[in-house]
Design brief:
Distance between the termini: 41 Å
Largest sheet: 6 strands, parallel
Mean pLDDT: 91
Number of domains: 1
Structural class: alpha/beta
Shape: globular
CATH topology: Rossmann fold
Low-confidence stretches: none
Strand order of the largest sheet: 3-2-1-4-5-6
Order of helices and strands: EHEHEHEHHEEHH
CATH superfamily: HUPs
Strand content: 15-25%
CATH class: Alpha Beta
């Protein structure tokens, strides 16, 4: 089983995330895509995040009708702040028959050399890169690496930051979220 790991805070998960993950599950050699909900990214302030379990609940609801997509809270059990290499090592031990790969936006590939043990990640794991629109040129030294695969996925210019801001301003963001995620956000009165 070949599993793509799509890491993120998913604060909240939106249709852009789902479109990219589903595209990879349907149009690449990946059998499944797991949304790994990150409790605390070393690059983000924790104070801006909803509680871990709420973000996991939204991802779980968003993926419930997609058999090749699933929510993962695996990083909740690991020491914080966590690093991708630690999660990969843990998953390899827990699921020895699975082959794990990373999924990231092209903009993240630009800063990949700053990740803890990035050389080891590149040695052992394939990376699937989806396109992103960027105001500055995205040039990366990893473009010709044999383990890095660029995927012609739909470009989604939509961000969780934009959605949070729009909700706070009283805007209708329902088309940007799956219905059950919107219902959960609305019911819990999040981001208002």
């Amino acid at each position: 089983m070949k599993v793509g790991l799509y890491f993120g805070t998913f604060n909240p998960i939106h249709v852009g995330h789902l479109t990219i993950a589903n595209h990879l599950a349907e149009h690449s050699d990946l059998n499944q895509v797991w949304f790994v909900v990150t409790p605390h990214s070393p690059f983000k302030k924790k104070s801006t995040l909803l509680e871990d379990n709420h973000r996991y609940q939204m991802v779980d609801r968003a993926t419930e009708n997609y058999p090749k997509l699933r929510a993962s809270d695996i990083e909740f059990k690991l020491p914080q702040p966590n690093y991708t290499i630690n999660t990969l090592t843990y998953l390899e031990e827990k699921y020895p028959d699975y082959e794990f790969c990373l999924i990231m936006g092209k903009d993240n590939l630009n800063s990949f050399h700053k990740w803890k043990n990035y050389e080891r990640i590149l040695e052992r794991y394939e990376i699937y890169v989806y396109p992103r629109i960027s105001k500055k040129a995205i040039v990366t030294k990893f473009e010709d690496h044999k383990k890095v695969h660029f995927i012609n996925a739909p470009i989604m210019e939509l961000s969780s930051t934009f959605i949070r801001k729009a909700i706070k301003e009283g805007k209708d963001v329902r088309p940007m979220l799956s219905e059950n995620v919107w219902q959960y956000l609305d019911e819990m009165n999040f981001y208002k």
